[in-house]
Amino acid sequence: MQILMVCLGNICRSPMAEGIMRQKINEYGLNAEVDSCGTAAYHIGQSPDKRAIQTLRKYNIDISKHRGRQFDRTDFDKFDAIFVMDTENFKDIIKNTRNQGDREKVKLLLDVLYPGMQKIVPDPYYGDLAGFDDTYRLINQACDKIARQLV
Ligand code: 4NP
User: What are the tens digits of pLDDT across the range 24-42?
Assistant: First the structure.
């Protein structure tokens, strides 16, 4: 199972989701891999936001070596599941789909917890450090459910 986590900048939510999901893959001993990217080009090559790094360090997850990259259409060929954080990300990725197979891979991350409710992982970038803990909790619950489904 190849999993891709997607947000806007690839410096806050999706690198957090990648780090959290990788910890679950290891904990549950899953045959899966995870990567992340952004829909925008602003932060290509950059490290994650310091607050994202700091928050995940509390949970023994190190995302400091991640570097931002932008979504590429060939990601549809490399990944089985593409989890997006919000509805803007969803629209941006759907725009790039080439066929029904591509479209079926794209899901809101929180749909795994709240199917059909269009719940989003809010962008913590313009908020304070506490917002990153909220982001952690939401993503952690969703990743744990994904992991349990893959056991
Ligand atoms: P992310 O957060 O999509 O969770 O990585 C953002 C980071 C940077 C910007 C927007 C969102 N930005 O506009 O620079």
Answer: 999 999 999 999 999 999 9
In single-letter form, the type of residue at position 106 comes to V
Provide the token pair at 147.
């992991």
> What distance in Å separates the CA atoms of residue 60 and residue 134, rounded to the nearest whole number?
17
- Residue closest via CA to ligand 1's atom 7 equals 9
Instruction: Residue 81: give its domain's CATH number.
Output: 3.40.50.2300
> Which atom from ligand 1 is nearest to the alpha carbon of 16?
4
Mean pLDDT of 112-137: 97
**Active-site annotation holds for 67:** no
Nearest residue (CA) to ligand 1, atom 6: 9
Q: Which of 49, 75, 123, 144 is catalytic?
A: 123
* Mean pLDDT for all residues in the chain: 98
Burial environment of residue 125 by CB neighbours within 10 A (0 to 12, 13 to 18, 19 or more):
middle
Instruction: Supply the range of the domain harboring residue 30.
Output: 2-150
Tell me how many domains the chain contains. Answer: 1
Query: For 38-78, what is each residue's pLDDT tens digit?
Result: 999 999 999 999 999 999 999 999 999 999 999 999 999 99
Task: Please tell me the predicted confidence (pLDDT) of residue 59.
Answer: 97
